[in-house]
Amino acid sequence: xSTAAVNTSPAPVEEPWSxxxxxxxxxxxxxxxxxxxxPFNIRMHGGDLGPEELRRWIVNRFHYQRHIPVKDALITAKxxxxxxxxxxxxxxxxxxxxxxxxxxxxRWLRLGEAAGLDRETLLSGDSVLPGVRLxxxxxxxxxxxxxxxxxVAASLTELSAPDLMRIRIDAFERHxxxxxxxxxxxxxxxxxxxxxxxxxxLDLVLRWAGTRDDQERAVAALRFKCDVLWSLLDTVDAAGRxxxx
Length: 245
Ligand SMILES: O=C(O)c1cc(C(=O)O)c2c(n1)C(=O)C(=O)c1cc(C(=O)O)[nH]c1-2
Hints:
The chain is an all-alpha fold. It is built from 12 helices and no strands. It has a single domain, classed as Up-down Bundle (Heme Oxygenase, Chain A). The chain has helices at about 20-35, 40-45, 50-75, 80-95, 105-115, 120-125, 130-145, 150-155, 160-175, 185-210, 210-240, 240-245. Bound molecules: pyrroloquinoline quinone. Ring cyclization and eight-electron oxidation of 3a-(2-amino-2-carboxyethyl)-4,5-dioxo-4,5,6,7,8,9-hexahydroquinoline-7,9-dicarboxylic-acid to PQQ.
């Protein structure tokens, strides 16, 4: 009978990447997989979307927007100190406002109105596509179920968002003048908010990820989030395909 030796020793533990290499790997995910590369965004920036496609994007992206403070509440509940919870609560206020009529969700409703969509249509959620519901559920549940390091790392798509906002504002002003420029306030506000949010989140992720395993899980979380944004646009893109033929 064979008595081949079985290697029972644990796999060697890999050294953590240096902070600079870890950060470079996180940034590389955004450069390679962020939705600024998605064909729908390329068409948006090139001025190739018709009014129906643009409205469909606004309605479906609103479903994402309104769930951002929900996932941020789930993250806040996992943070261990008052200082960190205070910091993260500010994100919820950025979206929900300090009072009715303020905040990012309100600004997105105004973007909808500027594009000819009444707020009841957006608030009802009736026209949200099934694939968009699944993508957004995927992100919210990820933040609900995964450790706080991964949930915070998933928000690091915001490292790439401010540059995209600038391109988008430019594209809207140039190619879609039928949308009143006041409607673009959401994007303008997000440039500085996104920079601050991503700086804070990056500091936390660099500080918390002490082992190679932590670092790899943070990179994987960011890839997952890129997939969420990508599949959201896949769904919106596919819904307009018939109109473009
Ligand atoms: O319009 C966009 O392309 C875009 C992308 C992202 C992103 O990269 O996740 C966010 C936003 N917008 C945004 O407005 C926003 O408030 C936001 C919060 C978060 C997050 O994961 O915490 N991402 C984003």
